[in-house]
Design goal:
13 strands, 297 residues, alpha/beta, five-stranded parallel β-sheet, 3 domains
Amino acid sequence: MRLKIARKVGFCFGVRRAVEMAEEVLKTEGKAYSLGSIIHNKQVVEALSKKGLEVIKSIDEADRGVLVISSHGISPETAGEISKRSLKLVDTTCPFVRNAQSSARSLGREGYTVIIVGDANHPEVKALYDFAGKKTYVVKDAAGLKALKLKPNERIGVLSQTTQSMDNFLGVVNAIRDTKPKSLRVFNTICKDAQVRQAAARDISRRVNLMLIVGGKNSANTKRLFEVCKKTLRKSYLVETERDLRSQWFKDVSVVGITSGASTPKTIVRRVAKVLKSSAVKAEKKGRLQTVHDKRK
C-alpha cells in the first residue's frame, strides 16, 4: 500500500494568521474571549482554550478584556456593538473574507440584488449577508435559485462564500445568466487556497483506491473537499483525527490519497499517515508502505 499526500496540507494563510494572532494575545494577556470558534477545528480550539481562549456565543458574555474575532469575520452590526463596549478588539478576519465583505458592501450600495452562493448558516455567510443589505439572498446551488423567482431585467450581483467549489459557483452564475438579467456583476470571491486544494484533491482521487480528507466535520472547506473527492471516488472518507480510521475501509486497497482542510494542523495529518504506515506493517510483515508527497499543484 502506498500513500499519496497532497502537496498543500495543514493551515492555509488565513487560518495560520488567525491562530498566531490568538496565541500572541494569550501570551501577553493570559486570557481572551473568542466570539464563536476562531477556526472550525475542534482540536485547535481545545488547545487554545487550555491556553486561556474562552469561546463565547454573544458579546454580552464579555463586558471587558480582549475579544478575538474569528477568521470568518463579523457583520457591521456586530462590529458596531463591540465598539460601544470596553473591549480590546483583535480582528483575525481572513483577508480573503474581508475582500468578499468589500464586494458585498459595494453591490449592496449600488442597488444590486445580491446572490451569495454558500451555506446560509455559516458565520462567514451571515456576515456577508449583512454587508450586502436588504436585497440579498443566499443559495446553496443553482437549484436554490428557483425559489427566488428572479425577475427579468433585474440588476444582479453574485459572490461566493470563500470555500465554495468553482463548479458550483459557476453553475449558479450560468443559471442566473439564463434569466436574462438587465445587468450581471460577478465577483469570484473563492479563496485561491481553496481552489488549489480542491483541484489537487480531485486529481489525487482519480489515482488512488481510497481517499482520506482530514479535518473538522464542522469545517466548510473540509466538507467541500470531501464532496469534491466523493464525486470522483466513492471510497472517500472525512476523518477528524486518526481515531476515526476504520480497518474495514482498507480491504483490497493498494493506494491511499490524503488531503486536509485549511483549518487542519499538519500534526494531525502526520498522525493519520503514521497510523496507516504502522497498520500496513503489522498487516503485511514483508511489505513496505511507501509514502509519496504528491507534487502536482
